[in-house]
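Shift notes (night). Ran VNX1 protein while the centrifuge was going.
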Amino acid sequence: KAAEPRSDSSGPRRGSLCDRHCAIINNVQGDLSDLGCHLHYPRVPPAVCSPSCCQQHLDEVCESCMVKTTLTAENAVEANKLSNNYKFGFKKWKSHVTARPWEDRSEIVKELYSDLNVIRSSGGSTMTCGNVLYLLLFGWWLSLLYVLLAAVMLITVVGAPYGQLCWDLAGYFLWPFGKVIQKVEVPKSHRALGGCETGAEARGAGETSPLLGGPVPRRWHPQCWAATKHWQRAGTVVWLCLGYPVLALAHGLVCVTAWLLIVLIPVAKLSARTVTSVLLQPPERLLIRRLKVTEVPLEGEVILCCYHAVNLYYYKYAVDGINVFAVNLLPLVLVTLVLGYVDSHNHLTSSSIKFTLALLSIMPLSYYIGMAIASISAQSNFAVGAVVNATFGSITELTFYITALIKGSREGNRCYAEIVKSALTGTLVGCVLFVPGLCMVIGGIRHQEQRFNSRSAGVSSALLFLSVGGVFAPTLFSKVYGKLVCGECHNVTQNPLGHYLCHNCHFDLMDNNGTLYYSHVQPLVYTVSLLLPAAYLIGLFFTLKTHSHIYDIHISDCHMPGHHHSAVVHWSRWQALVILLLSTLCMSACADLATEHINPILTNSTISQYFIGVTVLAMVPELPEIVNGIQFALQNNLSLSIEIGNCIAVQVCMLQIPILVLFTIFYPTNFTLVFSDLHVYASMFSVVLMNYIFMDGKCDYFQGTVLVMVYFILLAVYFFAPSPSGC
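Came back to this:
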C-alpha cells in the first residue's frame, strides 16, 4: 500500500528552499531499485514562510528527509520481507524470497539461465582466455576419449554409425565454441521400410540445410539401417553397453567439476545436455557444423550451441532461490557428517581436518537458516515473524556454545568455557567494528559519502551500551570484591617486606568455600540475565510499536512496468519450516563435531586460545551476514549494513548470554559470567568508538578504514596474548 508521508505538526512547515534541498539529496543518493527498495523523499507543499525560516530549519529538514524510506517491491511477500529488514530484531536478508518476473531481469542475468540452444546473430570472438582454459582442462582429453570410442564402435561393425558420430563429436568437444549440433529429420526414403538407398544414390544425394548453409556430411547408411526402429537396433544396444556409459561418466565428471568452479557453469550445462539429449539421439539425425557470421537459422531444432566457456557473472546464479555458493557447499555438510561419525577413530582423516570441515559446514547451514527465517517471516504476520526470529535468529551460535560447554563439563576442562567467552567477545567486537567498517570501505568505493538513519542507529547504540554494561557488571563486581590469587611469586629485593614479582594472577571468587561467588556474584549474574532480555523486549516494543516512525517505512506498489505479478515464493511456509528444522539439526551435528575435534588444535597449537575464539569461532558463522551487509552497502543502503552488526551484537549480550546462563542452571558447566580484563576493555572500547563514528548519520571509506584498523589491532593483541589460565 502506498502511504502518504507524515507531516510533522509540531514543527514549522517547510518551504520550497528546503524542498529543493531534499530533491538534491535524492539525486545524490540515487535509486536503490536493484535492492528492491529505495530512499524516497516526499515533496512537501510550499509553506507560507520566509526563506530565512526555511534556512533556519534546513538541517532538521535534511534529517527528516533522510529517515523517510519508501519500499517498492514486485509483490506483497517481497515488500513484507523488505519491511522486516528495517525492523529491529529481525534478520536482515538481501536475496529474494520470491521468483522475480523474467521480463524484469537484466540481459546479463537472463543469459545465465538460458539454455545452450540459442544461435546469436553476433556471438563475438571465440578465442578467449576462458575458452582456452576449457581446452586445457577438459577439451583435449574429452576429444581423445571420443576418438578411442569411435575406433571401438567401428570395430564392432554394427555400431559403425555411432563410431562416425564419436569421430564428429571428437572435433566438436575439442573446441565446441561457435559450432552447432542440430537435430534434423531423416528423408522419407530413409524412413520407409525397404526403401534403402544404393551406394550410388547415397553418394549422389546432396542434402542441404538452410540453417547450416552447406551440404550435409554423408552418414554411414548400411542396408536398411534407417528402416529399423532406433531402440531395436543391434548397434544401439552395443552403443548403450560400450560407449554411452563411458561418455556419461566422463561428462558427469566434467559437469561436477565445472559446476563447483561456478564460472565454468556453461561447460557444466554443455556436458549435461550432451548426456541427456545428444548421445541418446539416432546418429543419422545429428548434424555438426560451424556457423558462419552471416548464417541465419531458418529451420531445424538446435540442441547445442555454445560460444563461451566462462561467465564471471555466475556468482549471481541461484537454484530455487538458493545462491550457487550455498548449493555447492551443501555436499560439504554431508561429507563432514559421514567422516565425523563413521571415522570416529581418525583412521581416514585427522582431527584438524574434521574440525575445519565442520566449521566450513556451518556457513551454508547458516545461509539456509537465514533464508528459511526470512521466508517464514515474509509470509506470516508480525507475531509469527517475531517469534521465529527470536527463536532461531541466534541458533547457529548457541548450538556451538552449548555443545562446547557440555563437552568441557564432561571432561572437566575449563578451556572450553574460556573459548566460549572468547567467541562471544569476538562476535561482539567483530559485529561492532569489522562488519560496519568493511561495509563502509566497500560501499565507499562506489559512493563518495553514505548516509544512514542516525535515529535508528542511536536506538541500537543505546541498547548496546546497556547490554555491554549489564554483561560485564559481574566481572567488574568481582574485580572490586574478589581476592587476588597468584600462581607463582618471587621476592625481587630479597627483603621480606620488599617487592614481589607474581605470575598467573587472577581474582578468586571461591575463597571461604565460595561465599563471595554464591552469595553475591551468582545472584548478580541471575539478575542481569533477567534484566537484559527484558530490556530487549522493551527495545522491540519501542521500535516496532510505539516509535515505529523512527524508521518511517512505507510500502509502495508503484514500480517499473511489468511488476504486477502474483507472488511465486521459492519456499512455502511449511517447506521453509522443514528446511529450518533440518538445517538446525545438521548445525547441531556439525557443532558437536567441531567441539569434539577442537581439543588437539587447542593443545598443540602455538596460537593463543583467545585468538582462535575471537576470530575463527566467532566470525565464521557470521559470514552470510557479512555478505548481506556488503551487498546492502554496495546498493547505498548503509542503514541495513549497520543494523546487521548492531542487531547481532545486541542479541549476543541480551539473548545468547542469558540463555547460556539459564542453561547452566539446568546443566552445570564451568561457564561463569566473569570475563578477563582483555575482553572487557576490547568490548567497551569498541562500543564507544562505534557510537562516536555513528553520531552524525553519515560516513565514508576513511571512517570505515578506522574501524577495520582498530579491529585488526585488537586481533593482534589477542594473537600475542597468553592463553587463559588452566588451558
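Confidence is low (pLDDT under 50) at residues 1-67, 190-227, 558-564. The chain has 26 helices and twelve strands.
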